[in-house]
Amino acid sequence: NRKIMIDCDPGQDDAMALMLAASSISNLRIEAITTVAGNVDVDKNTRNALRLCDLLELKDVPVAKGASRPLVREMLIAADIHGKSGLDGTAMPEQPVKQTVRVHGADLIIEKLLASEEAITLVPTGPLTNIAMAIRKEPGIIPKIREIVLMGGGTYGNRTPAAEFNIFADAEAAKIVFESGAPIAMFGLDVTHQARANAETIEEIRAIGNPVATAVSDMLTFYLNAYQGLLGRTSAAIHDPCPVAYLIDPSIFQLEPVHVDVETKGEFTYGMTCVHKGVASDHVNAKFAGKLDPKKFWDLFYRALTTYSS
Ligand code: BDR
Ligand code: CA
Q1: Among 125, 156, 179, 203, which one is most buried in terms of CB atoms within 10 A?
Q2: Which amino acids bring their CB within 6 angstroms of ligand 1?
Q3: From the CA of 166, how far away is ligand 1's center (Å)?
């Protein structure tokens, strides 16, 4: 089983990423969950991560609260999509039973990597602040990172025409991560926009009938309504499960070697990921996911949900 650590800002789609990783069809062992300011502030994101651990019965996985703001820029949130709590729309209890461990998220990432004999895969589904902090604080972790399989960026944006939310929310951190030399697999908007949920998806998930499936269909209902209200869309991309789905079944996705630079200076392009395809192999710093097979993706997603007990 591949060891992973999930760094997240849950967030309805982060919640679905956790659900996939924790399901019994997953070949992944979750070593830790760390949280970061992103969709909402870090305290709310942390509370949501703990509530999700209760729901998914992740009793032994340590959860640590991480960065409360980006490295350099001011904080930016996305409560318009995810609701005030960051995870509106579900009937999950407001207060979690599970508690955090009393160590900073970036420190937990460092501790776990240094203590593990085998390299660990990092799965960031929020802004990259904690990962950048960990790399700066202890560069000795880099050889212990098997791969950073992240949701972020793309060849176009959603927060601005140029920038995707996770990268835009802390571009300085993203720059540190992409320049770190650690192997990266990038799941940006080009591919996550192919994982679209609509009203029919919600009904199919609700029909599964177990409490996890019910919570996911409630979250999707809220999420889809937000997209409909804000952008007039009848379907919504569920971004964050993509990197996890890749780790469970890489054959769902097509990736190619690229070089990625992160823009941190542009007046209109701050947070843009400049994806250079077809570069010489010594210039490659990431694998770029461009395509997914929607049928295979949704089959995996539904299968994962059916494994939870009723
Ligand atoms: C990303 O932004 C967040 O709002 C989502 O959770 C996802 O990680 C998509 O741009
Ligand atoms: Ca997220």
Answers
A1: 125
A2: 11, 13-14, 39, 78, 81, 125-126, 151, 158, 164-166, 239-240
A3: 6
Give how far Cα 225 sits from Cα of 158, 172, 301, Å.
17, 32, 21
Q: How far is the CA of 179 from the centre of ligand 1 (A)?
A: 22
Could you give the percent of the chain with pLDDT greater than 90?
A: 95
Each residue's pLDDT tens digit, 113-166: 999 999 999 999 999 999 999 999 999 999 999 999 999 999 999 999 999 999
pLDDT tens for each residue of 172-226: 999 999 999 999 999 999 999 999 999 999 999 999 999 999 999 999 999 999 9
Instruction: For the beta carbon of residue 119, count every other beta carbon within 10 angstroms.
Output: 16
As for the ipTM of the complex, it is 0.99
> Tens digit of pLDDT for each residue in 274-285?
999 999 999 999
What is the distance in A from the centroid of ligand 1 to the CA of 149? 15
DSSP string, the chain: -EEEEEEE---HHHHHHHHHHHSTT--EEEEEEEE-SSSS-HHHHHHHHHHHHHHHT--SS-EEE--SS-SSSPP---HHHH-TTSSTT--S-SS-SS---SS-HHHHHHHHHHH-SS-EEEEE-S-SHHHHHHHHH-GGGGGGEEEEEEE---SS-SSSSSB-HHHHTTHHHHHHHHTS-S-EEEE-HHHHTTSEEEHHHHHHHHHH-SHHHHHHHHHHHHHHHHHHHHH--SEEE--THHHHHHHH-GGGEEEEEEEEEE--S-TTTTTBEEEEES--GGG--EEEEEEE-HHHHHHHHHHHHHTS--
pTM: 0.98
